[in-house]
Every structure is written in C-alpha cells, then in structure tokens.
Amino acid sequence: MKAGVFLYPWDVVGDPDAAARIAGLGVRQVTLASAYHSTRALTPRHPAHRVVTAEHAAVLYPPDPDRWAGRALAPYRQSWTPGDDPYGEAAEALAAAGLEVHSWVVLAHSSRLGAEHPDTSVVNAYGDRYPWAPCIARPAVRDYLVDLAAEAAARPGAHGTELESCGWYGFAHLHAHDKVAGVGLGDAAQYLMSLCFCAVCREGYGEEGVDPEALSASVRRALEPAWSGGGSPESGRDGIAKLLGPEQADATLAWRGRVARTVQEAAVAAVRAATPPGFQVLLHADPVPYRTGANAGVEPDHVLAVADGVVLPCTGSDAVRETVLGPFAGRGGVRAANFGVVTGMGGSPRTLERDAAHAASLGADQLRLYHAGLASGPDLEAVAAALSRLG
Asked: SS3 string of the chain?
C-alpha cells in the first residue's frame, strides 16, 4: 500500500537531513504544502528553530504576477521561511531523496482574506461574519479559489495535488484560541450555524423555493434551545429536517450542494488544464455532503467522476473508518486513508499497522500520515516500524 506523509516546506528548508530522514520512514510520497492557512507549528528536529508561526494564509512559492495583476482577491505571500520559493526548495530536496512530491493546497480557509475583504465571508443567520470561511457561492471568491487551485497545484516537479477545503467552510474553525465549546451543538446544529446568508446565498435559497428571511428566522428559532441550555444533539439529514422542517432543509441542502459541486468541478478542471496528463488530483473529503471544513462534504459518485480520488479522515475507531470509507466502497478511484500519527494531537502511531490493515479491508488503497514534521521521534519510530511490516 502506497504511503505518504504531510510536510510543510519549513520542515525541510534549512535542515540538510530532513529529506533523508523522511525517506527513511519507508514512505514513497510527500504531500508538501504549497498554499496553507495560518498556523503555529512545532519543528522538533530542525537545527535552526523549534517554532514556526505562519501569521496568515499564504502561498509558499512566488505567485505569478500576471495571473493576479489588478485583481482585488489574490494570494498572500509568506515571510516566515527564508527564500523566495520555500516550496520549490523543499520539493527539490525531497525529490533528490527519491520521494514523489505532491502539492498540498488549502483553498476555502483564510482569515486574512475575510478580514481584508469582509464581503467575501460566510454570514450566519445572526449576521455574524466568519472571516476564516470564504463564501464559495460568491463569483469573485469562486474565481479566486479556482485560479489558486491551478497555480498552487501545478508546482514544478509535482506529480499530483491534494486539494483541502475544496468546498464549504463553516462555523467550526479549529482556531488556536477557540472558545465555542460551552454549548453542545450536534451535527445538525453545526450545519445551521454554517449556513450562509450573504446576498448571493439568500438569492440561492430563493431559487430553491424558500424565503431567505423566513429561513433565517427558522434557523434562529431552531437554535434557541441550545442557547437556553438545552443543547442541540440532533445529527444527520433527519436532524436537519427536524430543526428546519423538510422543505427548508431540502432547499438549503440543494443550494449548497449545487454550489459545492460547481466549485469542485471548476477547481479540478483548472488543475487539469494547468498540468500534464497523468497528474493526480485528489480531494480531502467527507462522504456526508453537507459537512464543512478541511474535509469538505462531497457526494461520492460525483467526486469520483470529477477527481482521481479522495483523502479520507480515518483516525479513530473502527466505526469511524467504516462510516468514512463505506460510501466509497467498490466505486473505484484512489481512496487514501488519512491517519494522525502525532500522539499529542490525538493520533495513534502505535496502532498504525492494525488500523491501516482495517482501512485496507474497507477498500483504502493508499495511506496518508499526518504529520511527519510535527511528530515526535518516538512517533516517527513507530511509523517506520509499522510501514516496514505493512510492506
């Protein structure tokens, strides 16, 4: 089973031993960030630093000035890793060590974009903007994300790309200082809190046959028990219908599903137009279409007709893997099982051999390991031991 790890360019740039160390794990592929969101990352083995603070979403290569000239929405450049092209420098070192490099592109997730261009953000039913979550229904946002996908994916020497957040982002941010866990919001309430009510989405709900003002009022009314202390544990499509009523629930799902599919199709088509035949395009995905976030909700039949496959979150119990991999069983395409291997971040590198075998029995044909740059020495030793036995 082909295995790959995720890396940031700053894990490699300035560390002459990094590429050989990664190759020594027994992996064949590195998925290397070329466009990424803000983060604070530990670099436990780097000879020159221990912490890298990526202050905002940025590209880690020099963007094409002609592509972005005169456009209000354009990618931001990074300043925290030395050199003009840290992605290119890291990719060259990894390829020299015999590793196949694929680009890692984060799309609909940028707090700086939302801060500097507030009209691009998702607006919830209370009028609150989510600056980290660009509304993918807005034409200018969609055009920006599609061009970013093409440029950031097609880096020199890349054999493929993995598109993260290629769909709706919503309420959940996973921000370092989030203070939002005081109220229990189930899967359905999270969906309601992720619904966008910008002008474009309001028009879209109208096209689906519901009044956007009435829908907004329904969302606020449905969530009131949660704010009053009762929580909102409902989950699944049935839970959404219970909170909103079938007509309004179906309208929101139809509108958001149509927008997500359009963005996914356009992004993949742009990448294919910018890359040679055989360039692999995978989406980080969740098989529940209404889900938001890094693993964007998809419809399995649709996404496998558009892209070459998916990367699926498989850390956790057997039941988690069965839920995530099951909808893709027997449908073809790459099905890469993504496992956390950083113990301190909830990963389980010591059960990787067993968990990977379970994923393979459910149809997974590749592994992705998150994240070789963040993992401790003992975690990496456990990964290397597991991969040596998996073959």
From this structure: CEEEEEECHHHCCCCCCHHHHHHCCCCCEEEEEEEECCEEEECCCCCCCCEEEECCCEECCCCCHHHHCCCCCCCCECCCCCCCCHHHHHHHHHHHCCCEEEEEEECCCCHHHHHHCHHHEEECCCCCEEEEEECCCCHHHHHHHHHHHHHHHCCCCCCEEEEECCCCCCCCCCCCCCCCCCCCECHHHHHHHHCCCCHHHHHHHHHCCCCHHHHHHHHHHHHHHHHHHHCECCCHHHHHHHHHCHHHHHHHHHHHHHHHHHHHHHHHHHHHHHCCCCCEEEEEEECCCCCCCCCEECCHHHHHHHCCEEEEECCCCHHHHHHHHHHHCCCCCEEEEEEECCHHHCCCHHHHHHHHHHHHHCCCCEEEEECCCCCCHHHHHHHHHHHHHHC
Smallest Cα–Cα separation from 60: which of 83, 41, 40? 83
Residue 31: both structure tokens together = 């998925």
Min mean pLDDT across 15-29, 184-198, 228-242, 274-288 is at 228-242
Q: Judge contact between 63 and 150, C-beta under 8 A.
A: no
Take residue 229 and report the two structure tokens written for it: 């202390």
pLDDT tens for residues 228-254?
887 678 889 999 999 999 999 999 999
Q: How many CA atoms lie within 13 A of 268 on its CB side?
A: 23
Instruction: Return d(Cα 25, Cα 216) in angstroms, integer.
Output: 51
Beta bridge partners of 303: none
Reported pTM: 0.97
Residue type, 103: S
